[in-house]
């Protein structure tokens, strides 16, 4: 199948590994990936901070960039939720594409590590991803999936919330990091690099805490050292 | 600006929240209380097979009310008057307070007993009565605690949620006439309050209440409660004054059933609330002989005009959204500067007052948009959607506005975007050397990113952007 990738602005600039992993994984599964270069940002950040007009321009730009593609995948739950609410694009979060569209639950990955999974608010409530990501992770060879305490609690990121309400955001982050550390996992995985940047920034200050990783990177891994 | 409205924040939310966060006891009390009640709610909601269709029906009924507000109010008034009630219309808080004060004066009452009511808190009725020389006495246990402490409520349903029992015993000993108990067992404390309140009820000539629902078809008012003190207020005094927000209407008596199932499970996690009182007009020789109903607008008809924001008026004040809100759990109710705290407060207060009132414009930003509130709301208010709507229609800082348009301009053109990515990468190259020591993140960033690094490390632009990787690996051959 020919699948168009929406990599998102944040992944493009800061976390290309998530996009690279998505491409690697889909190509390994025998699919062709297209990357329409006219894409940049879905407009979520602008819309949620209160700027409807620039958001709308970016939404239209994204629609134009992906016109004609039947299946669009993105490694970001919150951006997919935004695209679904504000454009007519057939956008899927990676686990939705794999499980619902391609019908795969074992992607043939190997990742011999202890991993805990944070479901993220948009994955949990806007997209209702349910146990799709966990199902995919459980099929990974060598991976031990450890439950995260209070998984459905927001990490406190919320885009500009982290700056505008820094104190409350910091308190929420502290609780999320404590829960992540309590698992004893080596990695904390999630389906959104925005949440991961926030949680990872907190975990970086706790010696011995899990390291943040996008779950696409785990699914793309074949256990060979990179 | 009418500062004295208790729905106007006088401190920006971030400042008030940071202050409350410093209170470790408050955080512990709140965390324990909200966790208990949200677990209980989740359990009893899961028992109801048709919960989702019931939410849809309730939302539709409330929207029907907002679509036909004027007509339903007229129908309610006609039915209530026919049953012997007197109906008043109050445009705003001052107007409503003046009407109630005048009615109390006419009875020459020095005090009134009160049933817990959000509408009377919203208009600051207690303060208005005190200014007129009338003593209001709250009869809801938690409301009484807050009143004795000269404090303000911090939760819609559990106004004293921020107190623990030893703090309450200490307060009763100081402020409650005739209090002697030495234990802080909840039953002992409740017993002491009951004795104090009973003496008060028997002496009261006037009671003031609100209403959970007002039924247009029959002119009835409905009050649900769990202690039974409200029922004493509704039956013993000669005069009863009800202050009712116009959005409390239900078109038909038959609509009540769904709401009486949705409300207790959502609010207290009970299958049914212990006391439901439905009263219509007056009955000679039985109960209050004078019933005055003050229909309160105070911004509501204005809000009902907003196609997105109006859904906030569906709210039945169950407080489920407070109990699941991670921001409320940390910041506490006082941070919102309004009698309506939490997610519903963040959308209701700025709409009722207008966003320019005090610091109410900071409230729509008091959320990560995590969506937990929308999931639990029994009348399906899409609170995150309304928060974003208020952010988009409200006042914004000029610098931020400029930054957002510039960013959008850069992102709208692939050449500009590629240049920006490369500039960010080379600009941050020296930082990458420092960051390498902590696994690639930055511990202390310059302004404006310093706000981020106050609480967490910052990521750096990647050494190679995704689009450059793609070009190198997929287009160069
Ligand atoms: S907004 Fe919904 S959940 Fe919150 S208090 Fe109102 S009815 Fe309850």
From TrEMBL, chain A:
Entry-linked InterPro entries: Cys_rich_dom
GO cellular component, one term: cytosol
Example GO molecular function: oxidoreductase activity
Superkingdom of origin: Bacteria
Pfam families assigned to the protein according to its UniProt record, in alphabetical order: CCG
Entry's transmembrane regions: none
Domain Cysteine-rich: 3-84, 115-199
PANTHER family per UniProt: LACTATE UTILIZATION PROTEIN A (PTHR30296:SF0), UNCHARACTERIZED PROTEIN YKGE (PTHR30296)
Name the UniProt record assigns to this protein: Fe-S oxidoreductase
Provenance organism: Catellatospora citrea
UniProtKB/TrEMBL annotation, chain B:
SUPFAM superfamilies for the chain: 4Fe-4S ferredoxins, NagB/RpiA/CoA transferase-like
Residue intervals of the 4Fe-4S ferredoxin-type domain: 312-381
Domain Lactate utilization protein B C-terminal: start-end pairs: 392-473
Protein name stated in the entry: Iron-sulfur cluster-binding protein
GO terms for MF: 4 iron, 4 sulfur cluster binding; metal ion binding
UniProt KW keywords: 4Fe-4S, Electron transport, Iron, Iron-sulfur, Metal-binding, Repeat, Transport
Keyword 4Fe-4S annotated: yes
Domain LUD positions: 74-296
UniProt-listed GO biological process terms: lactate metabolic process
UniProt keyword Nucleotide-binding, yes or no: no
Coiled coil segments of this chain: none
InterPro entries, sorted: 4Fe4S_Fe-S-bd, 4Fe4S_Fe_S_CS, FTHF_cligase-like_sf, Helical_ferredxn, LUD_dom, LutB/LldF, LutB_C, NagB/RpiA_transferase-like
Domain of life: Bacteria
Pfam families membership: Fer4_8, LUD_dom, LutB_C
